[in-house]
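Before relying on records like the one below, remember that each one covers exactly one chain. Contacts with other chains, cofactors or solvent are not represented anywhere in the record.
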Amino acid sequence: MEQDTSYKERKVITIGVVSELTGLSERQIRYYEERKLIFPERSHRGNRKYSFADVELLIDIANKREEGVQTFEIRQEMLKEKRKEEDKKIRKELMRGQINARFGVQKDS
């Protein structure tokens, strides 16, 4: 794991604690993993480890489920949002390259 990872992204929370924080059962949490809505890391012993960002995501998923949104729809929305973020990152890099080229800025090797 990278040292500069923010505390929100560090996967250090066990499934039991996540269950307590979210009010979801461990089975529900594992189900959301099966549906590819959440991606915990595994410890060397195989235990699931979650981040604070995962906890927030699980709460968001639970709220959507209470509103009647299906897991498939949630997954599609998440993929769409991920693509949007990737496109934004690409546009930013292209813009930076154009600005650097325009003003003769050399990229460090």
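The two ends are 24 Å apart (CA to CA).
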